[in-house]
């Protein structure tokens, strides 16, 4: 294997594992990610670890703090507003560009992803559910010839996943309600896209993203009030 390709593959593997560990709470908000310790854990040099941490910083999952280095980013109402407002700007535009070009294979993929989401919901598998959710959205936009916007939205969906997992992992039972609602809304989105109704699909998508944003803001603000003595 080309050494450069091997290095990039190693960095990507470490990036995937660190991202998953942050998303599932193994590394909670505020946790310090020491490069030497991670390099020892992965049995690699610090170089691919450092590159993976820089990528996580670009995704908003990690922040570099003076005297501490890489630290898992805190959950933030400001970031929820920023991420989801950007999604509301970009995703309807992508959907509008994609719907007229979607083909039978695209709808077959959407149907398969929806079936996987139903299964993940029934199993309360948050890790799998979050990935399917992102894959479903990206599949809806796949035919939009806007590669830069697609790249940005992919990153925004990854940022959204962390907040969504926190919301859906509550112990009051509202998480499963949220998952079930999302399953229903995704089916409606696919149906509108299949019917070629661009205006209705984009309006529905905007409402879908806004509803999730509002739910997350309420949940995070409620959690912050509980944590305040």
Automatic annotation (TrEMBL):
Please give the Gene Ontology molecular function terms for this protein: DNA binding
Q: Which residues form the HTH gntR-type domain?
A: 8-75
* PROSITE patterns listed in its UniProt record: HTH_GNTR
SUPFAM superfamilies of this UniProt entry?
Answer: GntR ligand-binding domain-like, Winged helix' DNA-binding domain
Which InterPro entries does this UniProt record tie to the protein? GntR_C, TF_FadR/GntR_C, Tscrpt_reg_HTH_GntR, WH-like_DNA-bd_sf, WH_DNA-bd_sf
One matching Pfam family is GntR
Q: Which UniProt keywords apply?
A: DNA-binding, Transcription, Transcription regulation
Q: Note whether Chloroplast occurs among the keywords.
A: no
Domain of life, source organism: Bacteria
User: Where do the coiled-coil regions begin and end?
Assistant: none
Q: Which PANTHER family match?
A: TRANSCRIPTIONAL REGULATOR, GNTR FAMILY, TRANSCRIPTIONAL REGULATORY PROTEIN
Quote the protein name from its UniProt record. Answer: DNA-binding GntR family transcriptional regulator
- Species: Ancylobacter vacuolatus
